[in-house]
Amino acid sequence: MNPRSDHPHESSIDPLDESDYVNDFQELRFDSTKDTIVESGNLFDTDECDLTGEIRVATKVVPPPVHRLTPASDESEKPAEGDKSLSQTGSQARGSDPIVQSLMLLTTMAVMLAAARFAVPQIVEEIRYAWHRGELRAEYDTGNEGLKNVSLDSLSEAYQMVTAAVGPSVVHINVSRHSEPDHGSIAKVMRSEALMVADQGSGVVVDKAGYLVTNRHVIMDGEDIQVTLSDGRRVEATVVGTDLLTDVAVLKVSANSLMPIVWGDSDRCRVGSPVWAVGSPFGLDRTVTFGILSGKHRMVRASTQYQDFMQSDVAVNPGNSGGPLVDSRGRLVGINTAIVGDTYQGVSFSIPSNVVRQVYERLKTTGKVERGWLGVGLADVEDDQLIGSDARIRGAMVSAVTDSKSPAARAGLKVGDLIVGVNGQPIADVGHLMRMIGDSTANTVVEVEFYRRDEKIKVPVRLGVRPEL
Length: 469
Hints:
By secondary structure, the chain is of the alpha+beta class. It has helices at residues 81-149, 152-166, 184-193, 216-219, 353-366, 407-411, 430-439, and strands spanning 22-31, 36-39, 42-45, 54-62, 170-176, 200-207, 211-215, 224-228, 234-243, 248-253, 262-263, 274-279, 287-298, 309-312, 324-326, 331-339, 348-352, 372-373, 376-379, 396-401, 418-422, 425-426, 445-452, 455-462, 464-465. Among the domains are: 266-351, Trypsin-like serine proteases (Thrombin, subunit H), CATH 2.40.10; 372-465, PDZ domain (Pdz3 Domain, Roll), CATH 2.30.42. The longest helix is centred in the N-terminal third of the chain and has 69 residues, at 81-149.
């Protein structure tokens, strides 16, 4: 069918060049009975159309995505030499751009890492030093402010008040001997490990009736004991009694207007507490030194299980033996007894005031110390024998029973029994059990708790009198 028609109702459409456009034709069919044109099942009204037959009409023109250019001549198809080289250069540049960019990125990262390698530690160090300087500045400012609000004069006065409260109770002791003394076995050991000066020493008044406490090794074998009081008076002293196992001695002087020291509780004195020592080192009477309590329940080779030393860093020298160790309230918490070496080396030992007081009371009453006696040999408890989870409460193992008539044998104790308590108090170790039994007097009944294999047993034991060594 010809695309152009002379029919009056036919659309006038210019011829289309199929090379330039893509035409979308649809086939239309004219129905004369209904005066309609049928297009793919759709009806279009044609009231004024009386055409018959079939027609082909272009209903939609779709432009192509790209127009094709027709060159004017053959020369236009050939690019110029300059354009060609430029095009090739551009193509090469476009092809090499990703590689160049990657290399530049890697180079930049390498430079940044290198800079960070050297710069970051320095920055961190500067920050750390700045922080430290800030702390120092804060401490400096706080310290200066604190010094404005706290009077060091008041602290100094507190120290002086301790000295004033203790000084009048401290005495200097001189001992005269006409022959070389026999110190005994324990004193020889004590002399080899911790220097015990026997020619002079210190003491402290504990009763205004004239009772003084000092070390046994200070006055041992003395034929003439002279005491110099704090007010300068010199009086003769007599020995009330001594105890070898604790190295405690009690003297008596006839003097009035004495000022006794106040007893303190050594058990309540905690490690780290400030303490003062007063005595006569090298004959320099009423010398005061200061330190802290460094430890408790110390054992040295020269000591016995009954001494239970307290350790301090107070300067104690020959001549301090027998003098008081006091707390911040001026109360007696120990008797200075020993040092390590010939002179002070930062470690000194004192007998706890609770031990001294028990011995003092017995010596004052009877002139001797009769300790309770269980009648067993004791051994330390090893880790594999430990009962319970607390390794500090080990107890004491019975390693021997002296004889069939000893208090332990009569109560039924046997070798291998593990003693863990006395009168309901847990036993820490062998020394603790010895002190507990020794603190009790003869004929005292105590309840002993022990393990025999896996069985826990409690028995009453009537203590005997500990034999003299």
